[in-house]
Amino acid sequence: MPAREQAHALSDLAARFGLELRGDGTTAITGVGTLGGAGPGQLSFLANPKYRRELADTAAAAVVLAEADAAHCPVPCLVARDPYSAFARIAALFETRPEAPAGIHASAVVAADADVAADAHVGPHASIGARSRIGAGAVIGPGCVIGEDCEVGPGCVLVARVTLVARVRLGARVRIHPGAVLGADGFGLAMQEGRWIKVPQLGGVVVGDDCEIGANTTIDRGAIEDTVLEEDVRLDNQVQVGHNVRIGAHTAMAGCVAVAGSARIGRYCLIGGAAGIAGHLEICDRVTITAMSFVTASIDTPGEYSSGMPVQDARVWRRNAARFRQLDLLARKIGGRTKD
Amino acid sequence: MPAREQAHALSDLAARFGLELRGDGTTAITGVGTLGGAGPGQLSFLANPKYRRELADTAAAAVVLAEADAAHCPVPCLVARDPYSAFARIAALFETRPEAPAGIHASAVVAADADVAADAHVGPHASIGARSRIGAGAVIGPGCVIGEDCEVGPGCVLVARVTLVARVRLGARVRIHPGAVLGADGFGLAMQEGRWIKVPQLGGVVVGDDCEIGANTTIDRGAIEDTVLEEDVRLDNQVQVGHNVRIGAHTAMAGCVAVAGSARIGRYCLIGGAAGIAGHLEICDRVTITAMSFVTASIDTPGEYSSGMPVQDARVWRRNAARFRQLDLLARKIGGRTKD
Amino acid sequence: MPAREQAHALSDLAARFGLELRGDGTTAITGVGTLGGAGPGQLSFLANPKYRRELADTAAAAVVLAEADAAHCPVPCLVARDPYSAFARIAALFETRPEAPAGIHASAVVAADADVAADAHVGPHASIGARSRIGAGAVIGPGCVIGEDCEVGPGCVLVARVTLVARVRLGARVRIHPGAVLGADGFGLAMQEGRWIKVPQLGGVVVGDDCEIGANTTIDRGAIEDTVLEEDVRLDNQVQVGHNVRIGAHTAMAGCVAVAGSARIGRYCLIGGAAGIAGHLEICDRVTITAMSFVTASIDTPGEYSSGMPVQDARVWRRNAARFRQLDLLARKIGGRTKD
After folding, report:
1. For C32, which of B125, B224, B274 is closest by C-beta distance?
2. What span, in angstroms and rounded, lies between the C-alpha atoms of A73 and A62?
3. What gap in Å lies between CA A27 and CA A291, rounded to an integer?
4. How far away is chain C from the Cα of B47, in angstroms, using its nearest Cα?
5. What is the DSSP secondary-structure string of C3-61?
């Protein structure tokens, strides 16, 4: 990691981020670390109670923590109402940003009628198709392919090898990680006389401001209308979003979630890893789906929903699974009734 | 979206696609839309009964629909036996195809002994390896990597950033979406004295005519013989196909399906999203596997099979899952018997 | 496939790999094949007992097999304690390696302060970022993107279109398949006043010697410390590894496994396809997780664990799943007790 020679006095950090300082404000902070791993000059944080026992022995220079933990902190600290988000903002000071000078790399290929802002960066081996526009300060990393009729808003970062196939419109400050593919054909097929015929996918993809899209995630373009992510949607890696889906603002999905076509998902939802969401259904705002669960019908009540089955010893599991296969018979035998 | 200035008289569409016209045949059609979203000049369709209630209020210029719905249509209509496939064929008239002029882009790298048809398109930053052949009219989009000893049949479209690693043979008119990887090493390992040794993957991948392969889908090459997709197989995004798998003609798989090595899947199968298929088994023709189900053994009877468990309220789920862990004990207590 | 004109006398193979020869040692071996598919000149093997019935009719020139099967072999054979690993080593003789001459392709873009070994290969349209180092004999295939501050050890092979985002350090002889993304931002988010803020991801990824990483697999870099794969870890395609995960030496994961952040997985574990592993837990050495299972809590006892539910006829399944939704009520009715 390149040295970033900078030091911040703890008192300066307290002032800048609106936190309460306890202890020596002249403490110099030159980086961050975990409670267990931090050394001299490093700022750590305590947010998850399960790490509280590591506080007493920390070698960190200082710690961001909640009021209740401050008394037990052996080093100077910054007291925050929400230590995790306070730490996140401070840590950003120590983030390394890859070089991305304004201008178009000599190896990049840009269509004659594409429009690239003067201060945007277009990296090596990137290509930009007809009628596409790249906004002010945007970064198009190495190997990205921007197809035709796309818009990349101001301040967007396409890290590397991102593909926007066609008719993809990104708002401001959207961040997309390598291998992601937006705007590929949706999976539309009709069977005719024993063969599939392809249903044309004429829509696009619209991504709101401040969204983040993970590595190797795929978001298909709509069949007729657009696939839509509202603002501040956060998708982890390897998420699949089918055509015509709509995802509400501030919703987050962990890795490997699969969302089938035309599902509508509300705002402030949290979808756990590898969960599946069937198509043509609606999930209201503020729904949490736990990991590896399967949503097959609309949900109209906020709350937490599950169907991921935890492992057990394989021999026991096999016996239980065998019983499951006759659960209805078993239930009938004892007079149970299905009324769900 | 670029303007495609074209209009088709409704009567012309009826004649061209063999549909029955009802109402004003001079109606000009300039595009398509959904029943709820279509406006002037747009053709819509009604195939799924759940949208029937939107017919009365549609602002579409005309609608493709079934005989039974024609009487309720407030605008001119085209009557089809199968409205969805009729609409698909008409909508293709309004599809925009990206520019792909014949010839090899100056930035592409083509091996001296590769063979590219004169009317094929090889886009920016594509590379084509030794002894590979690109057929007539094929499109190799930007950033594609074609390795050694591959064949791309006539009329194939590799949209962008597709990789054919080695010994991949595509039939005619195969369409592959960005990020797909065909012909990577299968996952062959042998444990020897506490370390893995790699089993060489000497086979290839054979893909039949008219197949379509989704974004970020992976299809490994065979260990000794080939991994095979017969004609007209349709794979959605993020599907994983292990080495030596064989998939029968006209089978379709939705997103995120995982197929383990050496599975043999029949013709006209439908595999729902995120389903898993274990290795070394056989599935007969015309089997439907619903989403998020797990096939662990061969299936020799056509029909529909499931094991995806729907979500419920998380607290209730946890109680039920805890009971499941002792289902066999419970069943014994009431004298149930496993005979599946 | 290019002709590789080479023949090995069976007796030479026996001597070279320490196997016992039975039958005519002058038999010339020019390639390999399956028991059912092999023809003249081809060596086959018998390791899985379910293929034993194919031995009697094999047209292979010779077969690698276990002592117990030798008597039933109709052709010359090589007797091995472990026929599969013996075959793997012999088959490597017939493997075709793609051309990868030493040097940097004219179309590649290498940062001025990057360091590429003289005998390394950097292919077409690859790019290598600031301060990164490529070791002796390493192969950086076409379209790879190596970001800043990365290290690629001696003998590594990045087949094509691999991305190392930043601060990724590979040991010796690591093999990475196309589309894999190492070192993307981990999925770190904090909610503040109704909006997500991004938690900087300041760590890297460390990959030990002899690891193999499948196509379109993603491994995020750590939030503060590193994400770590110890030596000889083998990941199949489309595996997702979250930030701060640690995977022990010699562990193998089949396709589509998802590992959430901060999980610690032991040595010599086998994780079946599409299994999910929750975050912030620990799995001890020598644990097998069967396919499509979900690990929600730490495992401290070696053994096999499952929760993947096999399909059954969809109508029967629906009745059983409906009963499951009230399993706790059912169990209470018959006086069952949860004590797991």
Report:
1. B224
2. 9
3. 42
4. 25
5. -----EEHHHHHHHHT-EEES-TT-EE-EE--TTT--TTEEEE--SGGGGGGSTT---S
Start-to-end CA distance of chain B, whole Å, equals 56
Angstrom distance (rounded) from CA B217 to CA B180: 5
pLDDT of residue B340: 45
Per-residue pLDDT, B333:
85
pLDDT over 80 at B336, yes or no:
no
**Cα–Cα distance measured from residue C83 to residue C46, given in angstroms and rounded to the nearest whole number:** 7
User: For residue A311, what are the contacts with CB-CB under 8 A and spacing of at least 6?
Assistant: A317, C289, C293, C294, C295, C296, C299, C305, C306, C307
Structural domains of chain C ordered from first start: 8-94 (3.40.1390.10), 103-305 (2.160.10.10)
- Cβ distance A304 to B310 less than 8 Å, yes or no, reads no
Q: What is the DSSP letter of C124?
A: T
B325-329 contacts: CB < 8 A, separation 24 or more? B325/A310, B325/A312, B325/A316, B325/A320, B325/C340, B326/A320, B326/C336, B326/C338, B326/C339, B326/C340, B327/A319, B327/A320, B327/A323, B327/A324, B327/A327, B327/C327, B328/A316, B328/A319, B328/A320, B328/A322, B328/A323, B329/C336
Assess whether C121 carries a catalytic annotation.
no
Complex prediction ipTM: 0.95
pLDDT means per 10 residues in chain C (340 residues)? Answer: 71 97 96 94 93 94 96 96 95 90 98 98 98 98 98 98 98 98 97 95 97 98 97 98 98 98 98 98 98 98 97 97 94 66
| β pairing state of A246-247 and A227-229 | parallel
**Dihedral sign, CA of C319, C324, C325, C331?**
positive
Contact list in B for residue A163 (CB cut-off 8 A) is 143, 160-161, 178-179, 215
**Average pLDDT score over residue span B311-331:** 95
